Each structure stands twice: as structure tokens, then as C-alpha cells.
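Support reply, case 0932

Customer input (verbatim):
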Amino acid sequence: MKAFLILEDGTVFQGISFGVQGQVIGEIVFNTGMTGYQEVLTDPSYCGQIVTMTYPLIGNYGVNIDDVESKKPQVKGFIVRELCKRPSNWRSNETLDDYLKRHHVIGIEGIDTRALTRILRDKGTMNGMIITAKEVDVQAQLEDIKKFSILNPVMQVTCDRPHHYEGDGFKVAVIDLGIKTNIIRSLRTRNCEVVVFPASTEAKEMLDYQPDGIMLSNGPGDPKDCTDVIQTIQTLMKSNTPIFAICLGHQLMALANGGNTEKLKYGHRGSNHPVKDIDKDLTYITSQNHGYAVVEESLDKEIANITHFNMNDGTVEGVQYKTHPTFTVQFHPEASPGTRDTSYLFDEFIQIMQQRKGE
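Our regenerated output:
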């Protein structure tokens, strides 16, 4: 079945449908990872977005039941150059096509993803539609495409009740803004007892748990829309409990401390982004997925110290707060997909909790 990708600027690509047939509108973004398509599909930070994979062959190792970052795909649609229909991997349980069909996700293959990526790099991310049809009236679809916006994505992906994970180490309360499974796994590997709370949870309920530390997870959307969560963070900081924040959590912490965020032209999405750790004087290859960044000039240098920056465009990638035992990073130290170069940050979080416990 033929399928079309229509961008809000009127550009049209013709390809072949896979996954389910139909039509879907979302924000078109691209990911530069050569592997990890299963983790990309299930990353809640992609809520409301249609993802383009820049690597040309996708699906070659199939899909398994272990390498997922949430219970189901979170993307609105999936765009690839070439879909592998006969995967080869001993861990594979099903093909990518079957997986998307089972979860009712629309895909399109056979388009020039390099040309599409160049458009997004030049013009910035934009809305688009995937539609399966023999022919398509582009002008009739453009109004709906342009009107699309992602509404309350954090509330779409957060859990509906607290989840408790046993452990004999430090107690960590996690605010689920769209958390990836491997963040929880990274804490549990370090023997932490973990309670994951919905994003709407009030600070008092989390503090009643008497956590040794608090984590703010990754998640989708514009951080400035999360006004209630920002207020919750401000209350949590008054408790002087150590806080470690990742991705959206990093942005919300900056806003809670009087900083500002801005939307990037096309964002950072992939598993090969170089980030410099200033104190260690080392550059790490990181996994990233975000469309917003903290504005460096907006941070009060009396209370915030930049610890990491992006080697490609100089954006803020890490902040240490001087008035509170808090540090945040824009990238994903839990990887999945990506390198594990920065997993040491979880160990540093453990060390901070140890220090606070000994005081």
C-alpha cells in the first residue's frame, strides 16, 4: 500500500506503508542512532512525535521483550529508509512490522530520509502527517497539520499510581515525567529502594516516604507547561534532600531556580552526542533525546554552576546547584540506547546520599 508523508511546509514524500494503515499527525523529528530503534520507539519523551531514523536499514535485529523503555511504543509514527522484513538475531521475538501492527502504530518506508533530515535541519522541526492512500489531496490536509500541537504530554505518559521496587540500599523517590525503564534499573542495580510517583504527586506525599534522595526523570514536551511540577520541585528543594535530574527534569530544575529554557531548532536525538565534563576535563559520547535546552545566560551564577556542555553547539548539558545538594544533566546517563560512558553519575548520586546520611 502506498503511503505519503506530508510536511506542514507542503513538502510531500511518497513511500510504502508498514505497521498499521491510516493517518496520523505529529511533530516530525529525527534520530541519528545506528541502533536502538526499539528503545527509541518506547521512549516516553517521544510522545506526540513522528520519528525519522537517519540510519538507512531499520529492523534488522527484530524486536524483543526486554529492550523496551516503557510498556508500549510512544511515538505517533515511524519513518525509515528501508525496513528489514527478515530480522536475524537470537533474541528477536517478532519483526518490527508485526510489532507496530500489534500496537497500532503507523509507519512509512522507502522515502529519502537524508533529504527529509536536511529539511528539518535547515527549517527546524515541523508538524507532518503520514497517510496511507492511493492518492492524497495535500492542500486539504495542510490546515489540520498546521493546527496540531502536543497537549499535556507529561500527563499522557506518567504512571497513574505509585510503584514500589524493593531494595536494601538508599530510598529514592522518583517523579515520573515519562521515565525510561533503564533509569529505574540503574538505581536498582545500585541496591536502591525505589518508589516511582506520578507527575501530579504533591511534595508532601513524596517527603512522607522519607527518601534519601529524589530523582526527576526524562519526559516529553515544553518544560514551561509543567507549572505544577515546577512548584513541587521548589517545595522539595526546601527539604534539602539530594536531587538528581535527567533531561526534562534538568530543564524543570533550572526553571524552578529562576532560569529559562528555549526550543532548539531541531533538537538533539541520537546516541553519539559529545559532551564535555568540565571538572574531569573529559569528553563523553552520550545518548540524547530533547527539543529544549536551558539558556546559559539565564542561570544565576551565585546558585548554579555549569558542569557539562555540548561539544557540538555549546548548549548547557549539566548543572550543579550551590545552595542545595542537587545536580542535573540534559543527556541520558542510563543510555539505552547508547554508550554507558556517563553511568558514573548514578554512582555520584549514591555518594551524595551517603554524605548526607553521615552528617
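We compared this against your earlier run and they match. Two observations from our side: DSSP finds ten helices and 19 strands in the chain. Residues 2-150 form a domain with the Glucose Oxidase; domain 1 fold (CATH 3.50.30.20). Please reopen the case if you see a mismatch on your end.
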